[in-house]
Amino acid sequence: MAIIPQLELFSWEEIEPLGDLERLRLVLEHLPDEALMAHLEKSRGHGRDDYPVRAMWNSMLAGIVFQHPSIESLRRELSRNGQLRSICGLRAVPSAAAYTRFLRSLMEHGSWIESMFDELVKTLSEELPDFGRRLAMDSKAIASWASRPSKEKKEDGRRDLDAAYGVKTYRGTREDGSTWEKVVRWFGYKLHLVVDAKHELPVAYTVTKGSRSDVKEGHVLLDEMEKRHPEMLKKAEVLTADRGYDDSKLLSRCWDEYGIKPVIDTRRLWKDGEQTRLLPGHTNVVYDEGGAVYCYCPETGARQQMSNGGFEKDRGTLKKVCPAKAYGITCQGREQCPVAGGVRVPLAVDRRIFTPIARESYKWAKEYRYRTAVERVNSRLDVSFGFERHTIRGLAKMRLRCGLALCVMLAMALGRVREKQQERMRSLVRSVS
């Protein structure tokens, strides 16, 4: 629990139980920042202490909680809000230069922020038994405060020499069957996230240039979880992601190494108008890129989609049932059909297409809906944590800002859980009565 410096003019009893300052209280009380504060105070040594480390840190957290887009915006709030200064432990508003020095110090201690994040994830996993069972993965575009690359490559603290152009394409199907496509381009960074899909809270993250591939960073996220939270990989049952993560190596790794069932949409990669492929070892069974398996009647040549019969874990195969047997339809060639008893489809036929949960099944569609959890987390980062309007330049600052925002999000949720307010875990902007 954080140590909150309180001046004689302030008392927590003055705060409305459902007011905005209540959210700051939750963060200050439940963020595990003692080790970082002790280290920063030791690093400062016996120099001037006009603005104590703890007070500067608390004010930085307040800036995140109250969505201030810049340090100047935060300083203006501190100038006019004596109660907030008292909560933070400040007698005077720190100068812009003081914040610059403090931010520089925090960037040098980025690993401590990551450790706080890891501790919060571990604590929430202990508090919530189902935390981490369903995971969702996605990336979020974050534009730099700079609008384009700088022609001057000399670092001076004002230019953004780390950002890169990123492109992300969204596709979907309307109710009338027509397709749509939206292409988003930006100059900046990507926040790559794995979140708990039920509670909509982050469990792993990385921050990269905007040009970084989602698939490549997806492997990095799994590496980070294996290193930092191996117990969560053992607990996880399903990982959902959009088609940007459609990669045979990633899907195989989820199941083969961790026993996690991947529910990841497929891209259409088959060329030359190829609609189906013959299933190896069969003469009248084909499959399409969406994972559907079809059989052809030996008598009439009519094609029917085979029914799902479940996954055989010990064999690594998907069972497909004869449609005549499953649906009771008439098949003139059933007597001589070589697959009248059904077929087994090994995942090894195509690890990108065949997964432990059959792609065309109702269960797959149900699990895939959990993917939207990470989209809602991304939306809260924009709306509740100010990433739609910020003044951040540089990868180090962006990593720090993302790490702090995610820590605040977890600390606030942990506070709700510990105070028996679990139904309000996602209340980040204003409390819900």
UniProtKB/TrEMBL annotation:
One of its GO terms (molecular function) is DNA binding. Pfam families: DDE_Tnp_1 (PF01609), DUF772 (PF05598). Coiled coil: none annotated. InterPro entries: Transposase_11 (IPR002559), Transposase_InsH_N (IPR008490). Residues 14-103 form the Transposase InsH N-terminal domain. GO terms for biological process: DNA transposition. Residues 180-409 form the Transposase IS4-like domain. This is Transposase.
